[in-house]
Amino acid sequence: MKRKLKQLILLPVLVMIFSLAAAGGTVDKAAAADQVTVQIVGSNSIILDDYALDMGTLTDAQQTNDLTPDDGDKTPNALDAVLYATLQKGYDSSSYGISYYTDYKSYFISKLADVEANHPDYWGTLAVSASGGYDGDALNMHTLTSGDTYIVYFDANTDVGANYGNQSYASFRQKSVAGNAGATINVALITTGYDDNWNTVASSLAGATVYADGPGLSDGTAVAVTDNNGQAYIKFAAAGTYILTLSSDYYTYTRCAVNVAGSNVTLYEASINVTDGTSNLSQAVMNLTDASGLSCSPCSISAGSYAYRLTAGTYDYTAGADGYESRSGTITVSSDTSQNINLIAKETYLVTITIAANEPETSVLIRNGSGDKQICVSAAGGVFQYYLSDGNYTYTVCRDGYHSSFGSFTVNGAVKNLEVPALTDAAAGSAEWPAWRKSNDNIAVTASLTAQGAWQAEEKWAVSLGELGAWGTLSASNIIIYDGYLYAATEHGLSKIDGSTGQLLKTASLSANASYVSQIAYGGGKVFVTTAAGVDAFDALTMEKVWFCNDFDTFGSAYMCTTPLLYDNGTVYVGSYGCSTYNSLGTYGGYSAIDASNGQIKWNFWGEKDKDNTNTVCYGAGAVIEGNYLVFGSDDEYLRAIDLRDVGTNTYHSLLAAPLKLKVDGGIRSSVASAGGYLYFTAKSGYVYKVSLSGAPVALQLEQSAQFTATASTSTPLIYNGRVYVGANDGIYVLDADDLSEISRYTTSAPIQSSALLTSAYGGEAVAYFTVNSAQSEIIVLTDDGTEINYDTLYVPLHSQYCLNSLVADSGGVIYYSNDSGYVFAVKNNLRPQAGLTAVIINVSPAVIQSGTSTIYPAITVKDSSGTEVSTLVPGVYYLPVGDYSYSISLSSYRTAAGTFTITDQDVTAGSKNIAVVLTQDNGGGSVPATLTVTFILQDVADAFSKTMTVNSGASVYNVFVKAMNTAGVSYTLNDGYVKTIDGLSEGDKGNNSGWMFKVNGSHPQVGIANYYVESGDEIIFHFATDYTQEEDGQNWSSGSSNDSKTEDNDPKIEEKGAGNAQTSAAFNDVSENAWYFAAVNFVNERGLFVGSSTNVFAPDRLMTRAMFVMVLARLSETDLSTFSSPAADTQNDAWYAAAVAWSASNGIIKGLGDGRFGPDEEITREQMCVLLIRYCSLAGIQLPAAAVVGTFNDDSAISGWSRESVNMARQLGLIEGKEGNLFEPRGLLTRAEAATVFMRFAQKFIP
Predict the structure, then answer these.
(1) Which of 394, 547, 986, 1153 has the most CB within a 10 Å radius?
(2) Which residues contact 558 (CB under 8 A, 6 or more apart)?
(3) Nearest-angstrom CA–CA distance, 1144 and 1108
(4) Strands 268-275 and 305-310
(5) Is residue 845 helix, strand or coil?
(6) Cα dist. 1088→829, 1077, 1117, 1230, 1244 in Å?
């Protein structure tokens, strides 16, 4: 869920296209078979009420008029149903407006039924399913399901940038109810909420006021306040029809009709006050039931006073309040009345806690069994006294700069004295990386030797912070470093990691749900964490919770804190996104100061909404202390400065003095950075600002502003050596710190929503790093020596996911960060010199494919001349010395491409070498023919010829060319793979732009001849162009007969190796007797476990797919598969692997990918292989030995928790071994040769 929430924050309008397939729907009647229902709720009326649509009719209409064409799918979805319903009801196509957002694959509804929604209004959506369960998909991604009801509602109550999920939606469970005058009539209200796993669920709407219009009632008379279960119990005096509605303060329009029969009765006004004998108890709770035991709802509740409208009679009540004895009794109503219920305070006993040494500034916090903070009546000289009633209590003794101590005690009818040892374990005064931007100036500069480029980057470890959430993601907070440990917070709690090994040591739960933006900071021995209700403080050493702050004012209000935390001199400063107690998220936030020793609020700034209607919601807007002022921004487009010398408050802890402020263009969601006497920040409008705090009197002065090419930025500027390094939604900018003019700009694959980390370790060269909020969450590194700025990719994690987080670094040069995979990554500097290396960049086409909602990238393997795999942290980029290399590239649904290349001294001098590889689609269902038939045509020379010829599968145009020319006996000259001369005609003979080019099927490919792989039926033409620039598709000379990376001269090595010089097995031509997998291939072939990829071809380097693997397991089991048919949504029953999939699923070997899919063409990883093998052992009745430790891999920390036991058992059984460097590579993909070896070991061990 967290990942989606962040996306909504960045593109708030997308919230209205969330859909939910709900249990306990809001509509009484279910749609008929093969029907769906549409309901459209306006701002004060129902526009379309339960309009039924036939799914077949909608499907037919969709084929001729796709109402949502931008998603590229003509299959009707829930949004299509909504739009189609409006057309059927007489609205035309101009009555609605939708916009498609490619990044989120979602639509935004701007207008519906001729009603436009403009900021701050919008259209929200829900999909209510007859079968239950909320799914949370976007409405256009919600597949039509018979019985669904699709609800679109107008929200005119909550700022568009503030609403999350569907929190403003509400509905009566019943459309209509009936009863008699004077009798109790029950209605129920529901809204949307979240369960513990952040799944969106139907939730009872408690504390909502229900209003009624009808006989004898003025418009909008309050008739009930719902209880904790969302129930309202109402009495009406007169017969007739009433319309129930809700307050529009927070919730969308909703209504329920009440039909009242019978004779009129008299209802009396009864006011019941719960008091302590003198004044009302504001937190009192009261329940009232009539003589038959039915509940009675109050019409209103205010500060311990409950107002009812009741018939004459006797009623039972129970009343209570914290610290008071509960009381039960009866009241009699015979006329309008006002009565008091007086509660007696519980008997309390003096509890004294004495600190052994009279330490200054020591605090004691006591909480009862419910977690409620107890009031200290006296604190002096190390002695703290409380009056407490009977019960169990916990205490925490804390002092800023020391680690806390903890304990518990019980009060049982007597006074109690406790002596607590003095706090002696002093905490470090500072941490290595204590906060989001390291230092309180928000400038994240380190002096450590971090990796300068990908040639030095090496993954030290990667560790998961826990199970993924309901959205398949797990977002983490910023990372801090203290005493060699890393800390990060997720929805699971605050986690502590050993920085040297990556071991997850402990996760401590939070006092409330995680904030939309989790942030942590260190100060005085504590780690502070933002939550959905406030701030938690943990002891950094023990990870025990010291305190939690969730009562920001005298009303006990909790506020969701959503900015970086600033710790300074015993105070924690944090901004909030609104009150989570009273549902004002996104509409009423501010900034607060919290006492770091005990969690008490020092002051709050709630903004000036009453003065100028501004909205001081603070989201991501971290503060800085500049002189005597706390400076921060907010969504209301103001920068503010609070004078910390004047922080007097009223009784509600609100500041009395108004802050300084400066209006800017756009909401501020970056932190404020301080450098050289100036303040720098960005705005959502795409502006960067430079401001000073100066003048007499002091004021915020605008010094400079500039607009990015980008339209938005939330990145915090980093100022260093007169430059500003900052991100925006189109990439990275380097600006002049004086006038903010652009020096350099680099376009990235996705928005930059992180802020820079910079190292000063390399003298005059600044090296800065950003994370990219792409599906790969790559790190971009830039180097700036003052005259030249270069950009490159430093690292792409194996656990890819979107990323908003910035980078941190320790003194050893290790960079840390996390993305939404829930993993924390450590990237160290291996200090490898760049001298003697060149950057080999393998450009694969296609570079990426989409499979459903999955993004799949090519798998590239590069090996040196000894066959050793070359590692890289950036797929497709390798820093290599002089030598010979080979590569293999695979991608689902494409043929594996293979080739060789050589790095020369000239390549090292050049600094880089590009290799372009175009993959061809595999249309044969996984089987590639052994040979291909192509036509080769040579033109424009005396010995021109045309020839149909047979080449090996996987041959490139280079292979075809060499074979054709040699067979025909035509002379040719290759210069480093470049076709220079054919039959005496050379490049340049007919002009400077003349030379040899080639076509495949009539077009000039945009790659060289060694990197275009042919298919059966291809026609290859070599022709001489007098001017290549005039050739169609011939804009680039290297797209002709040469290779722009000039590597084709190495390709004859491929052909020579397959031309009969090597010894092969009798079974497969591509398996040499000298190959390490020779025996394994022969074994599995003889056992019938594997068959060749085609006749006499085993394809040892081809990657194993999930379909291949379960087929081998099925063959191993010798099961009759004829009775099995696949249940998987993406597996046809006539597929060659379908029966094996069904067999493995029915026996619990495979679990699928979710959504009923199996993913047959997806490659299997090494850890997945271990899991499936161990599951098969259980099916086959194989008795496994007791688990034992037989050694560990050096990348043990990278093994997923769900696979660890299986991987360890597979190693214990001798089925797997480590690769070079004792690495297991759990997420590495499995080749057919590796799989054959494992199956041979398995069969030899367990199968006679």
Answers:
(1) 547
(2) 512, 532, 533, 534, 550, 551, 552, 579, 580, 581
(3) 12
(4) antiparallel
(5) strand
(6) 48, 16, 12, 20, 14
> How many Cα atoms are found within 13 Å in the side-chain-facing hemisphere of 497?
28
Contact partners, residue 1144, CB within 8 Å, separation at least 6: 1110, 1113, 1114, 1150, 1172
Q: What is the pTM of this model?
A: 0.61
The structural domains of the chain, ordered by start, are 2-168 (2.170.130.30), 176-342 (2.60.40.10), 349-420 (2.60.40.10), 445-829 (2.130.10.10), 842-918 (no CATH), 931-1057 (2.170.130.30), 1078-1246 (no CATH)
Q: What is the pLDDT at residue 26?
A: 41
| Token pair 């990278």: residue | 1198
Residue type, 240: G
The predicted-structure confidence for 53-70, as pLDDT tens digits, reads as follows 888 888 888 777 888 887
Q: Measured between alpha carbons, how far is 731 from 710 in angstroms, rounded to an integer?
A: 8
Could you give the 3-state DSSP secondary structure of residue 1199?
Answer: coil
Nearest to 1084 by CA among 1103, 1106, 1111, 1119: 1111
Most confident of 153-157, 320-324, 1035-1039: 320-324
Q: What backbone torsions phi and psi does residue 1146 show, to the nearest 5 degrees?
A: -70, -20
Cα–Cα distance, 910 to 914 (Å, whole number): 11
Separation of alpha carbons 653 and 1240, rounded Å:
73
153: β partners:
41, 124
Write the pLDDT tens digit of every residue in 683-731: 999 999 999 999 999 999 999 999 987 778 999 999 999 999 999 998 9
Cβ proximity of 515 and 532 under 8 Å: yes
Q: Where are the beta strands (DSSP E) in 908-1045?
A: 912-918, 931-938, 945-952, 972-975, 978-982, 985-986, 995-1000, 1019-1025
| Distance (Å, whole) CA 543 – CA 557 | 26
Distance from C-alpha of 1136 to C-alpha of 1139, rounded to nearest angstrom: 8
pLDDT at position 10 over 60: no
Compute CA distances 564 → 442, 652, 1022, whole Å.
10, 24, 63
Q: 1213 or 74: which carries more pLDDT confidence?
A: 1213
- Residue 496 to residue 522: CA distance in whole angstroms: 13
Spatial neighbors of 16 by CB under 8 A, at least 6 apart, are: 108, 109, 117, 122, 123, 124, 125, 155
Q: How many helices (H) and strands (E) does the chain have?
A: 13, 79
- pLDDT in the model for residue 13: 34
Ordered alpha helix ranges (H), 551-622: 609-612
